[in-house]
Amino acid sequence: MHATTTIFLELGAVLFALGVLGHLAIRVGISPIPLYLLGGLTVGHGGLISLGASEEFIEIGAEIGVVLLLLTLGLEYTASELLSGLRQAAPAGVLDLVLNALPGIVAAFILGWGPTAAVVMGGVTAISSSGIIAKVLGDLGRLGNRETPVVLSVLVLEDLAMAVYLPVLTALLAHQTFARGSLTVAIALGLLVAVLFLAVRHSDKVTRLVFDPKADRNDEILLLRVLGLALLVAGLAQKMQVSTAVGAFLVGIALSGPIAEGAAEVLSPLRDLFAAVFFVFFGMQTDPESIPSALLAGSLLAVAGITTKIITGWWAARRAGIGTMGRFRAGAALVARGEFSIVIAGLAVAAGIEPKLGPLAACYVLLMAITGPLVARFVEPATRAVRKRLPARA
To answer: Tens digits of per-residue pLDDT, 11-34?
Structure first.
């Protein structure tokens, strides 16, 4: 009874504090992710307050948060949209991944962390935050802009790359042999191809597993079926040595049509809750005293990350025939990093790859989640100011 009481008190305090931090972030006009990470640093190992009784529950909640993040991401796209985006934006996507993974890979080798940590850091610096970017574009009224489809196409390519990258990373972190690791990757790629085939040719049959089109929609049943299916597939994926995140992502892709919209709607509050718990748990696993030592490297990576994303967006928008201002808006929109960078770093931290990797990733995401929306907001006036000065200097 005493343990249960303590868990309720700790969880209640944490969730209420997260609500306050989220409200503060909205008032300031930034993503709540940095504040959630700071909250985790405060209540984690070495923080001001230590949570003991509820830490195991929070860890399980964090795992569910990863599943829900990838599930709802998959629900945003149909298989045909993913394949179409792959064909149209492949050059920009390849440039994006190579250019933005490079700073993380170089940093890991400079710090002497080895090839596995380099693969992790490459993923941390390469993947933009779809959640933050979507919110920023909506807040700034740019969803109808000509450059927005370019931005979304790049994000789609990143999502597809994640489906391939995560099983590769999982195999590396598990220290599997080359043969075993190759088998894991082959299984993941086979599942991806199979799900895309089913979603393109038989999406109606897959959808009937969770929704009967002849019946009125019942949100309770829909929530239970979609979440249950996602957790089942995620568990099976993990049992097959494939990332749970990949399994959840594939479930999202397989569901299409009105069911996908309905599922995203009913899952949204649950996703936000467990995603917040996930960010807190990552912060809890990071020692606050190690953050200052990572600040310089994190700041240098942030500068590199801002530069490479702006180059990526500018080039992709130019290739689509968009004007100068739209090119810079596209690049600035891609700057923010967030949930997926933390997912990748969290896998490495859990595997105990490199003790300094967690603090650097946390520092990097804090900086990028804060500066990303600011860069997107102020890129237009900054570009205008520079363009006005150029003729005067000529």
So the answer is: 888 889 889 988 888 888 777 878
